[in-house]
Fold each of these.
Amino acid sequence: MENCFFSDPCFQLLGKGFIIVQQLYRIYMKVTAINGSPNAAGNTAYALNQAGLSLREEGIDFEMIHVGNKPVHGCTGCCRCFEKRDGRCVFADDIVNEVLPVLKASDGIILGSPVYYSGIAGAMKSFLDRTFFVSGANGNYFRHKVGASVAAVRRSGGTMTFNSLNMYLSISEMLIASSNYWNVIHGNEPAEAAEDIEGVQVMHVLGKNIAWMLKMKEATRELVAEPEATGKIFTNFIR
């Protein structure tokens, strides 16, 4: 049997892989984090920035946008975004339409929220409902982006909030990055999260894994075709 290493197809594949690895060092990739806390420099921001440190170490650009201190309309289910399909929400007087194009252009997205009554903070929840609804109305442009979620909590409710944030990522067919524990960091007063050394490590590992997933996705772009998007089938449960 012919040795694979001396066959033309294998040489071509190895050569193509080498070129792709070289190109990765020149490709610009960016991750945008959404800070859903009312505090610009609280524990949620600290956790996101720890992930951002690892991303920058891996050559990935990182930006954090603060939405948790903004007045954000809740989604009314009017479905105007599905009627117009212009990439915008009908409510034009808050931060949602400003941030949408930034997220659309990003390679990865991290959602961060403090824990309020074992759930996502109010402004962040309204922001996510409308942002992901608009994405879904316009071809689901978050599909196959790398996504991750982070929760900051004083005591309990962290995993529930973490799971709720992940719901937005999973329904959008995003590639969800994980860490060596659930992405929850603990602290009450600003800067207390730095004392949660395990939580800090979780954020660092998360950043490394996001960077790896982005690079793997880019490296295989020409080698493995993405599955085709399928039209969504809707069924309503009735009595």
Amino acid sequence: MFKYLIFIAICVYGIPAQQTGIGRCPKVDVQKNFDLNAYLGTWYEAEKYLEFIELGGKCIEAIWSVDENNTIHVIEQMINAKLNFVIKGHDIVKPAGNPNEGKFEVFTGGVPFGAPYWVLETDYKNYSVVFSCTQVSLINAKFAWILTRERKPSEEVLAKAHAVFDKYHLSKDLLKTNQENCPGNF
């Protein structure tokens, strides 16, 4: 029964991923000596693998915070460019394993299991490369994001992030996120 639930989860979360395939998830390392406090704050989505849930989305950002109970919260928001309305989501994030590594699980909207959120590399001030892969039997679904502290990062910042994809032989078939004409606060 559990395998069927996992399979359904892959179908729900994996089908919207552009990077689906046969075989195991790639072996990647996550950020060592991860500093959660330095990671907190606003991250803007610069590039990503295709996600159907974000089609038509622009000004995508994630705001990381920790409450008084040490619970990690992420508020994700975007503007649907076609219909011109704001979409917001609230996630709870938990460390997955060693708390000194950039490996997390993200829990969304009452779903009883978390989705992987692996910070492959970040310098905390400019960019973060995040990867996620879920595997059931011989099928995997991969997601990846380049997050930046600026809505419009420099080419130098993006080059550093792209180098992480090269390091792990990950596809760089990324889509640029529209960060034009975004409101200062929404």
